[in-house]
Design brief:
Elements: E1 12-16, H1 21-32, E2 36-41, H2 44-56, E3 60-65, H3 71-85, E4 90-93, H4 115-135
Parallel strand pairs: 1-2, 1-4, 2-3
Helix pairs in contact: 1-2
Amino acid sequence: MTTSIFDLSGETAVVLGGTGVLGGGMAAALAAAGAKVAVVGRSEERGMARVKQIEAAGGTAIFQSADALDTASLTEARDAIIAKLGSVSILVAAAGGNRPDATLPPGSDFCKLSRDGWNGVFELNLVGGALLPAQV
């Protein structure tokens, strides 16, 4: 833990996408600074691995399953997190990524990208990050 100007003791952080590489790194850094952290994502296996890593380093963390694009799922996650960790003071919207139907091999024609693939990536990376703040 830290005693510097970056001390987050007493704070509660929610990291949506905390099961991923970037979100997981942010969750670990917040915990190292003293915050209690809710690792939120779809993969319980990856989420619990991140929680164990945080706890092994002396931090406090829980895993909460939720889908960044499902408002009901986010509402349930919010309620469970507040019940376990208290009110939320830090929110990180790190859910995002790509989809196989929105990926083209090198040299492919970008104009042949499916609209469904494009829309799915847009929703995950933009809309998903906007739904969680409305719940907290």
